[in-house]
Write a structure and sequence with these properties.
The chain is mainly alpha-helical and 89 residues long. It has a domain of 38 residues. The chain contains 3 helices and no strands. The radius of gyration is 21 Å and the shape is extended. The relative contact order is 0.06.
């Protein structure tokens, strides 16, 4: 390899990864189908039922983790407070 010593281990190489502006791997049509299926299953009430059922709560929390933002930014002088309570009765 001619460029073997050019990059350090773990360093990103030019043209590596997805180009800027390229759409997500999951096409928009698939996302639309998922939302349509959710609506057909009961929408918000279906998700509430999943969250409250011990058999499906784990899958629900995984879903929540997937849709939560990876980074939250806010005002350092007025920090946001988040409280989440999960109980299995």
């Amino acid at each position: 390899m001619a460029n073997a010593g050019t990059f350090k281990k773990g360093e990103k190489r030019p043209n590596q990864g997805r180009p800027k502006g390229m759409t997500n791997k999951v096409p928009l049509e698939v996302k639309k189908m998922i939302l349509e299926a959710l609506e057909g299953a009961g929408g918000v009430q279906y998700l509430i039922d999943c969250a409250q059922d011990p058999k499906t709560a784990s899958a629900f929390l995984t879903l929540v983790g997937k849709v939560m933002p990876m980074q939250v930014q806010g005002d350092p002088d007025n920090p946001m407070k988040l409280s989440v309570t999960v109980s299995f009765d």
